[in-house]
Amino acid sequence: DAGVIQSPRHEVTEMGQEVTLRCKPISGHNSLFWYRQTMMRGLELLIYFNNNVPIDDSGMPEDRFSAKMPNASFSTLKIQPSEPRDSAVYFCASSLHRGRDTQYFGPGTRLTVL
Amino acid sequence: DAKTTQPPSMDCAEGRAANLPCNHSTISGNEYVYWYRQIHSQGPQYIIHGLKNNETNEMASLIITEDRKSSTLILPHATLRDTAVYYCIVRVESTDKLIFGTGTRLQVFP
After folding, report:
1. Cα gap A79→A81, rounded to integer Å
2. Which of A17, A55, B71, B95 is the most buried (most CB within 10 A)?
């Protein structure tokens, strides 16, 4: 199994630009999670989906952030417009089902906003 | 907020057992204890989880006290590749969330 796939692995952009991060969960997994990791705040859950439906987006920092899951094999996290404080590593994770199933994390996307 | 308390850092000699403690004094009866680790620049990796009984798998052992207020992750023979940040997480009941705290940075030295 290829595991969770994220792209790009690194993204450098300028303030005000739109950024789109992509995630392909493990095949057959029904839940997908987006996390953000910074030195100041650690690892925080932004949003998660179950069967392509957003369940909890309470961790999304503000309206500049949006996430979609158009089908079971693809999700995007978009930041528009981006700001320097959005610089972080963004991780996607998937699990087989909701609840206590193990979450498998992708390698992350390191975002730098200048 | 995370419901666990862990020491910020620990050292362990290669080949020796690494015992990582975690306090979760407010854990509820149906909440599980999970352990993940994050090797530098990689995504977190699942290690083990348990409810009340001790658990063992190919990576580690998990010892949970009888009152469930604390637990210990044991890496029986630490290697240099086990150098990582180890997160103890109480799985929030009725949600799917993993709430990560600050973890323990384990340094395995030769």
Report:
1. 6
2. B71
| Residue A64: DSSP 8-state | T
pLDDT digits (tens, 9 = 90+) for B43-63: 999 999 999 889 999 999 999
**Is residue B82 classed as helix, strand or coil in its secondary structure?**
helix
Kindly list the residues from chain A whose CB atom is less than 8 angstroms away from the CB atom of residue B84. none
Residue linked to tokens 């095949």: A27
Convert the pLDDT of each residue in A27-51 to its tens digit. Answer: 999 999 999 999 999 999 999 999 9
The backbone torsions φ and ψ at residue A85, rounded to the nearest 5 degrees and listed phi first, read: -70, -5
d(CA A77, CA B52): 37
Tell which of A103, A104, A109, A110 to mutate to test the B interface (max B CBs under 10 Å).
A103
Residue of A nearest to B35 (CA): A102
